[in-house]
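> example.struct
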């Protein structure tokens, strides 16, 4: 499987590391399959927050997850945060804390924990081949439903649910927006809208665009080497033709992963602009 076929060509190649076991907790730091750019990494503190690791009950056991919310009883609007292909590491945890600082209960389940410990893997092709493409979409969507249920039982506000995701998580944001009728808003960061299908991953976002159940904002880079803007606009048009609400914002000079502050792809101005658009979009749709 080539990266170009998955919309992940914007990611780099790294050497192979020892494969880990199924995760019982979340990783510290960043995965081996990413490069560090410490000078630009954003660190959001936990002052005024309740944040940490938890377990999400799911159909066949439990998944490790990270949550962050404002201190106090709530209820707080809920945002499901969907990881990239690299797991729930420090960047994803920080995104949860940023959302909590904005008044949300954010929770990021480790959706690939059944298949591998992503913190022990460094080869992107191996991660895609042995983990990402072996994760059934139906299970992923069910796990996100479980995360939403967990959030509602731990200070979340009923009727105020949103989702956001990055890279592969952006793709899964599109899918979740076509799945959950209780969702109020979705924001997909450079999520592939086309790609290979299989028995366990039977549909692409483009194929499901007409079934969206919530307004969706897509944030994309004009210099993304793996996701064509024309493909994204075609998915949006398919949704609009079915009466769905989709807004696409393209940052002309941004590459894939422009929000990922731990990677060289980070573009500070575009990331900040996209973040403000996310917050405004959630507020505009009652989250």
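> example.seq
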């Amino acid at each position: 499987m080539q990266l170009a076929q998955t919309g992940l060509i914007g990611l780099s190649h790294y050497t192979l590391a020892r494969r880990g076991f199924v995760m019982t907790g979340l990783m510290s730091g960043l995965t081996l399959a990413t490069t560090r750019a410490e000078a630009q990494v954003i660190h959001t503190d936990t002052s005024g927050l309740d944040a940490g690791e938890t377990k999400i009950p799911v159909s066949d056991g439990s998944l490790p997850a990270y949550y962050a919310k404002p201190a106090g009883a709530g209820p707080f609007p809920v945002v499901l945060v969907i990881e990239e292909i690299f797991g729930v590491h420090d960047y994803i945890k920080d995104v949860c804390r940023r959302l909590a600082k904005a008044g949300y209960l954010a929770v990021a389940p480790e959706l690939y924990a059944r298949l591998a410990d992503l913190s022990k893997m460094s080869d992107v092709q191996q991660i895609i081949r042995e983990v990402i493409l072996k994760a059934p979409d139906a299970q992923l969507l069910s796990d996100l439903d479980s995360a939403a249920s967990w959030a509602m039982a731990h200070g979340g506000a009923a009727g105020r649910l949103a989702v956001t995701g990055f890279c592969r998580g952006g793709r899964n944001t599109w899918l979740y927006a076509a799945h959950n009728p209780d969702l109020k808003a979705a924001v997909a960061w450079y999520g592939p809208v086309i790609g290979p299908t299989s028995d366990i991953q039977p549909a692409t976002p483009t194929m499901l665009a007409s079934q969206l159940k919530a307004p969706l904002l897509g944030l994309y880079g004009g210099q993304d080497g793996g996701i064509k803007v024309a493909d994204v606009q075609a998915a949006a048009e398919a949704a609009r033709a079915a009466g769905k609400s989709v807004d696409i914002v393209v940052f002309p000079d941004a590459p894939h992963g422009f929000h990922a502050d731990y990677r060289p792809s980070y573009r500070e101005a575009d990331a900040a602009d996209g973040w403000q658009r996310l917050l405004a979009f959630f507020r505009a749709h009652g989250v």
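> remarks
Helices lie at 3-6, 90-101, 124-130, 137-152, 168-177, 205-208, 229-241, 268-284.
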